[in-house]
Amino acid sequence: MASTSPSSAKDAPERGVTSSLSYADAAAGPCSTPPATNPEQSIHLLLCALTWGAEIKKTRNDVRKFPDGFLFGTATASYQVEGAWDEDGKSENIWDHMTHTQPCIIKDCSNGDVADDSYHQYERDVEMMRELGLDFYRFSLSWSRILPSGFADKVNEAGVAYYNNLINEMLKYNIEPMITLYHWDLPQRLQDLGGWANPHIVDWFSDYARVAYEQFGDRVKYWITINEPREVCYQGYGANTMAPILDFKGIGEYLCAKNLLVAHAKAYHIYDEEFKPVNGGVIGITLSAYWYEPETDSEADVTAAEEQIQFENLVIFPPVMKEKIAAKSEKQGYPRSRLPEFTPEEIEYVRGSADFFGLNHYTTEIVYRNESVYGIRPVPSYYDDLETGFYQTQNRKMVPWGLYKLLTKIRESYNNPPVFITENGFSTTGGLEDDNRIRYYRGYLSAMLDAVEEGSDVRAYAAWSLMDNFEWMQGYTERFGLYEVDYDCPERTRTPRKSAFVYKEILQTRALSTSTTSPTPTS
Ligand code: FCB
């Protein structure tokens, strides 16, 4: 396994030069709102943020340090922030297509045509990274901006120039770029050919990956092939909750998953064999993983939770999934399993195809299995195959102990791989006073440290998100940003929230200070 330690990030001399956080100047613009916080207030905010937590698993009155070399960042994705949807040669992707043909499929009838206008505001974006003192910034490439036909016949120089500008601006301040090749915005032309359900996508994706390595690999040392296979395939192909809303239940998601995994593996091998020896760098895939807690300690609930973890999160195509789907398919009259087989060669090809485990984690759900879960879902479908019931915990989205349990499971069941937490975050409906977000970050970072102290090899953490952005089907109604974005303003003015000050403080001190708490599993 290649080293996943950063070389230059730790030594960044100029990072965080705007240490006094003069956001008022930075945010100045015709539509800017004055920041509600100032540096003095941040100390007060920090203290307020420490007083949370009615149910406490551990209380520590010491300063909890993050490990040496630990990397902090934030994350975004191309369609969610870039805008400029048809500028400089970019072609239509599946989100452009869906939102233009069915505008009110999005909660607020919005789209990402302009989004945060990062295509034009990238210097401000990097300035915010410096304000926060980030070690790295995770962003994704828009496939249809780089290869407008979808294929690697012609590289769009203007699209490449945008990413070069962004990367070079970040590197000026020793902020490491972390690139996701695919964060959900497939060129529409490839969707017209079946998208991830077409096995030829293995070649289309790996050709695109090669172009990206060639263009940016000299400067970019952290690569993620695909963001969240489960969301791409289940939500886009097996349901109608993400583009391309195919809703081809019980079949589409599984075809997609197989092709996606092989495509990932091919992109991994190209990097590993041709680029890593020259450029160094590491490459992995990012999975979305909730923690699934059994409702009771009955065997049925415990088995259900374990199966849900395996189906949804950690092992792609685990034996339990293969057996269940094969048996159901037969009963349903299909001549073969709806879950496509991997050949032995494909299994070997995919095995070990990641230098690190990219983990997106947001929350925890409670899982059960009893008579009520049978026969209530469409047949066939992913959740009919899984046969569980699940719901959010009382604390809804704020369940830090779930992250602790998940990291422990990854350490114990998968031979303690290096983990990069590539997304973790909390949404509000807007406003600068985001005490709940602060509470969330502090709780989750503390839970992460609990796992690290027990041996989990977590090396990086990215807050989702640097700033508010187009939150897929929720449009701009759900806000995840450390910075608030003013969508009434053409400049999309960015203003730091309280949480931005707290995150900056954590990054500066490399510690969570004084009483840090983790709620109990029963909370
Ligand atoms: C993740 C996505 C990311 C963002 C967050 C809130 O599943 O990867 O783009 O939407 O959820």
UniProtKB/TrEMBL annotation:
Q: Which UniProt keywords apply?
A: Glycoprotein, Glycosidase, Hydrolase
What processes in GO biological process is this protein linked to? carbohydrate metabolic process
Per UniProt, the enzyme's principal EC class comes to hydrolase
EC number(s) on file: 3.2.1.21
Q: Which GO terms describe its molecular function?
A: beta-glucosidase activity
Give the annotated active site: 423 (nucleophile)
Instruction: Spell out the family assignment given in the record's similarity comment.
Output: Belongs to the glycosyl hydrolase 1 family.
Assembly information from the UniProt record = Homodimer.
> Which protein is depicted?
beta-glucosidase
